[in-house]
């Protein structure tokens, strides 16, 4: 049975043999206690992650050792289950042939819709009327150099927005939340324009801090320098290219990028020094925390308990009823 | 010269004699080093706070000793200034006669407009369609027992929303911010209704935690029990009065009220355990922090410095340019 | 060999076959690396916890899958040992028949003796002379609605007082410690009466926060609301039922319940605001910490080391000599 | 009017001239803004502390400059009051003549009674039956070298037990609390003996850490080394003098002294590693905190407020009603 | 009597009239309680800071109001003293005429000697053999754009190295300490070269973060962006100008600058990720802390106490004997 | 093939049979899931640590159970590898005969060279000219009672300087770093002498806190009392033996030992109260942190990643390039 999405597999398929094209996210050869080799695999497609075992290693060892994370493979496997979780036992596996699969189609993706998100970007871009600020956005976001990455990168390595278009979705959330606060609290037009620019740019450097999907992890400069420095550095250089960039806007926008983690202990080298920067910081936490809880709860498979397990970055469990 | 608002006084009035009706917010008799008595007063009307001295104490000592905070007085005073700040020297002072002044008119008040705020309340109330939740709001907010206090109390003793209608404005801010997040993040209708109810009720018990304006300070039960306990306690009792109140809604709403400070060290006895409760918490901080900065900056009189002083609850200074 | 208590088994019984009636506290089916199923069990009776394996799963799989935590079973097993710890290999197992065993007899129980503890309760109850405070205790503790639970529940899920009558023993410890402090430090009779009432009530709501033994874990309302809120809430409602309950006693007792964890970061929404509340807090910690260390050290089986392992809630190891 | 105790002065004495013998605890010469010198004094006797001014400095400047803290003086003064607090205006002042006053009678003193406290010491000493532990107490406490200091020193510089016999009272409190816990929790006789010894010795070195009353402050070695090190150091040396001092008792008692502050951040270089040491720690905090609150509340003069001010070492205010 | 250095004034000069040229560091007009104006001044020259009063304000008010911090004035004053501290009473004051004084000579200055410090710079510069690293130092430090500021600025606003050449002295200290560690711990030549470059550059941006002496305070960009960002930003731009700048050196040096505060909570947006960066961090703290204690103790005037007061940034007092 | 150093084994030896004399650092008998016994061993010699398995347990069980950590054994084993790490499969094993091996030669050792380190000790000893300080060093360090231990013990149980001569190397590092700071910052000769003495003595008591190598772990008194107390205690006793030991030196040196962890939360019961003590503290951290990073990076075997794993005591990962 050829299946299109891993999420189609359910407990009705136990003992069925399935065929699928999946992405390997992790592969390890291990030894049983009685010295038999087997392979432990983590697989995914855009719809789901799933665990698998391959017990016939000996005859395939070289092939298995040659496989790497982020390769697409075609598998034949038997659906199993043990105490609640579905697990595959792989019977046959081969590299997906070139042209047979688009890796992109195996990567989890924002469910907001790219067209809708582009309209969102346009909406906020249009609010920015000051020419120097528009130009800053043009050069940082809408240039050929960056737009592709900006619109496809994830916004985190795990927990929240760690999917295709994740950064884009996160930026739009931050812009929406910030804009509601800004209009409710009657910020001036100039403050609002700056806040929008800061929303666009605050996590911009994640396009250099992370490796592109399906990889997940930091680049060397990401670990050594961090997106906060890298983003403010690039922004300042682009500002210098723009003739007569307003000096106060410059300081406020850079402070907003540097300060958007809100506290020194979260990696901001300076605190937010304007009301815009403070709004940006809270909107950023709001976006990350809400998405963390929602995605964590949607992945929680066990429906017998009233509460999820503990979500590590939030420090608590969540109520699943209601 | 009779003046209507303290905010009318400016440096052009130095040495003018003015007459005004003001509220005493603090009065202390002190001794100069050469044993001369004088009185230090803090005065306000709805527009401004101002400091004053009265040097002729001896002949008026009994009258001065009889004055208390939150009394309205009619003063004649000379406008002075020393190194930048306006200060009054009181020449004559008498208690405002009954009927001569409405204390209410001397208290700082939300500039949002009560009609507009009532429309806001209605907007969010209308989003709550579940009968048991509507009834909860009817009994907690829109009952004769509480509506007067709910719609006039401040939401803090100082720093933010510490003015007439302050609680109401804060609740509306929290509702607006939460609602934007809830719709953006596609919460279910049931989640949204609960979040609105939690927004209405989270600080409800401040109407018993604080003394009414123009007093500022905690009631005894406010200090001993706190608004978090008092609010959840009352809400639970009202829920019990409502036939067949949904059990999950009950736990989630109460957890939202108990958890709205977000962390144990900020006085929540339990953490937020739902996405609604987490949104409420961030919207609450957003409202308080943004108002803190805005009101602090608007009171900062000295225009020679680029930065304000340090805002104690935010731990930093703010940039005044831009 | 039929044994009455698991604690009777010692290293002299290695390779003996024993029969016993025990409670399952955990059961999991697992797979060896060569795909053989086996069951891992945690068993206990009132005297001891013990680990067991069952290697013959295939023929019994349905029976094993049907077993749940907190069921009593009759087992035949061989006593084994490997590098120091006794472990059972189960050969036969069947559900205990109705009437064959009282689950209660398989649960660890306070060794203080229920009669002695009842005398203790009476002693402190007799010290409370004020009618309204007596009535509060009558309704909260000595009523048919609560006495059964109050006198049998544990006071914690693990580490200390997590046994039958555990709450009762903990309350008596807190009362004894508090009373010594109160008389030594010459508190007034009124303060002492309030302190006794607070000692009785501070953890009262654990009878709704926890599931009854032999289950161990939180109820839904326990996790969502916590015993601090639930206890103060119920106490306040009972106080309101009592005619003319003294207002100051009300605030002080409620503050004592709310504040008994001593610091906000430990889950008290307000700090202790009276000397009675502070005594209660320290007596509560004293009881929990001392019991933690004693029970941890009594379970430590390895007598070759001078120190125990690290006790997680105390953050250190303990000296076993002396 | 000659008065015997400063606490006799009340608002009925305003404008009376009084005579008294008092201790100077602080004296400072200051300049009024119009360059007139005056003296600010803090005075006390065993019953009360009081503030005083002396306006006639010029003719007495040399005498005033020669006065030091902790000298006894005879004063004639006029009783004054301003906004609630009694204050003296000194008209005449001279050094108390030798023999005219016993400084000791001007120092606040434990109200427990020295005879009663000696009985307390004997009670706990008698519980210690092991010869080596008795000998340790004999040499550390009941020797001619230390008993005088041990029985008269304060246990703190301020806040709690900072009075004559303060250390003795604190030690007895710790012993009483610890002993109740030890018997309630059924410690072995050996544990109880060690706990009593630790109670006696834990703060012993305060007799070298502080200056003797009426001075208040640290000695040089007190600041540089602290009573925790100094006490354990001396105790270990005395143990070495005792033939065949049990090795385990040695480690446990020293660990108890070193660990009695309970956490590294409170100055204990090691954590408590036995149940005795943990009991000692909690009994020590209990004694200090309860006395802090009681003495703070008894000094709070203003009866118009429901709450005291904030007690700095406890971090909160206290409720004065009830 | 014309004096050359304020530090020449001693208690033997009481009542002498002196003449001196000094820098005003603070001036405030104040009102005595009996409404007489006076001026409070803080004065300094390179040798000492001193407090002064001017009682004759009325006739000079316009002149006094026109004076600003950091102006040089010629004063005639009477030397006074009250309870230990020398204080001046100004009798005459006029602005120092152009050419009459070099402001520079009134500013505290490193006592290391500029020639000696230049030799130190050269010593470490010579250790850097890699052309791209040399060029980096040439462009950042030894260029006409920056050398003047780099060699004269202070390294802190207060407490340590807040004097002329302070940054230079601090950099040399950091280089010396680091170099000893690097050679002792056998770092490779490449690591040592990088460490030297990081020592030169870590606080480089203080030349834009602070205002030049005698002013003391942050520039706008200093407060909004901070020297950590500004320094790494400029360094990265200069690196980009250097052909084929080694990529690993780039990341390591930038990480060293960004991480030199050692922990996020001290304002580093990333942690030190190399052994060089960790050495730099500890050498930086060593230099700041040691200088803090030395300068604090040298300013402590009161020789009657064994300990200084509490040094705010170190959190403790220091022993003055020995 | 007889090998001399485990570090000689490399991937070219896969499937070779080797013979070696090694030290067992850990041995555990375990059960495979199909109930087959095997042994897990950690082995080392001076050059390297290596993991090993022994599958033939049954016939050798008594011998294996008799083996303990820190025994030397002669093994024949086959070199294997699985996914990158070398691992041995033991075929034959016997206890090394007496005389066949010197345990000492199997323990990792400082690579500084003992002669060079002795010269270092002499260099710093010669800087101490004051007779009472020299005598203190003679009695504490260079006496027959302590020199053997002092010159061979490790300075930590793991992470840094946990090798033969480790304490000696650490002391020399601290002395070198301190001395550079002291001369750079122009401390007086007396301060420098004290600082050297403090460098020699600060960790002295580790010779009683740890068990001797090849054991690794704390002695009972080490855990109960700690090296900070034990070192200051012994030092004070030796000072008392020295006639007329300067009182200020005594307090300063003891404070330096007690305070060398720099903060209470790191186990110092008092803070450093002199500039010498502060220098000592920073030099101590510098030595430990730098060695931690260097030894951690040298053990990191995997060369495919740009960064090491997280070093637990430093809280971060390190960059391996450059």
Automatic annotation (TrEMBL), chains A, B, C, D, E, F:
What's an example Gene Ontology biological process for this entry? Answer: rRNA 3'-end processing
Keywords assigned: Hydrolase
Which parts of the chain span the membrane according to its record? none
Keyword Cell wall biogenesis/degradation present in the record's keywords: the answer is no
Record domain HD/PDEase: where: 163-298
Known InterPro entries for this protein?
HD/PDEase_dom (IPR003607), HD_domain (IPR006674), NA-bd_OB-fold (IPR012340), NA-bd_OB_tRNA (IPR004365), YhaM_exoribonuc/phosphodiest (IPR050798)
Q: Name one GO molecular function term.
A: hydrolase activity
> Has keyword NADP?
no
- One Pfam family, short name: HD
Which residues lie in coiled coils?
Answer: none
- Name listed for the protein in its UniProt record: HD domain-containing protein
Q: Which organism is it from?
A: Alkaliphilus serpentinus
Phylogenetic classification of the source organism? Bacteria, Bacillati, Bacillota, Clostridia, Peptostreptococcales
């Amino acid at each position: 049975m050829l299946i299109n999405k891993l999420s189609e597999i359910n407990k009705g398929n136990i003992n069925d043999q399935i065929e699928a094209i999946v992405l390997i996210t992790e592969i390890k050869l291990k030894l049983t206690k009685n010295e038999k080799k087997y392979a432990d695999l983590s697989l995914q497609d855009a719809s789901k992650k799933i665990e698998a075992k391959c017990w016939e290693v000996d005859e395939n060892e070289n092939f298995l050792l040659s496989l790497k994370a982020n390769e697409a493979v075609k598998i034949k496997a038997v659906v199993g289950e043990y105490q609640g979780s579905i697990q595959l036992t792989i019977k046959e596996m081969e590299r997906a042939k070139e042209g047979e699969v688009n890796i992109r189609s195996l990567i989890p993706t924002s469910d907001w819709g790219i067209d809708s998100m582009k309209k969102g970007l346009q909406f906020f871009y249009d609010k920015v009327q000051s020419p120097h600020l528009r130009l800053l956005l043009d050069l940082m976001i809408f240039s050929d150099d960056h737009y592709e990455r900006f619109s496809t990168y994830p916004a985190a390595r795990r927990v929240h927005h760690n999917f295709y278009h994740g950064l884009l979705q996160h930026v739009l959330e931050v812009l929406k939340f910030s804009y509601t606060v800004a209009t409710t609290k009657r910020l001036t037009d100039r403050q609002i324009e700056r806040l929008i620019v800061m929303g666009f740019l605050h996590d911009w450097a994640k396009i250099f801090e992370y490796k592109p999907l399906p990889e997940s992890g930091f680049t060397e400069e990401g670990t050594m320098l961090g997106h906060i420095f890298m983003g403010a550095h690039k922004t300042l250089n682009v500002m210098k290219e723009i003739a007569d960039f307003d000096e106060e806007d410059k300081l406020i926008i850079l402070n907003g990028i540097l300060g958007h983690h809100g506290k020194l202990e979260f990696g901001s080298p300076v605190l937010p020094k304007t009301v815009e920067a403070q709004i940006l910081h809270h909107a950023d936490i709001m976006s990350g925390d809400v998405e963390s809880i929602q995605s964590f709860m949607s992945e929680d498979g066990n429906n017998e308990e009233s509460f999820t397990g503990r979500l590590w970055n939030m420090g608590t469990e969540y109520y699943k009823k209601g």
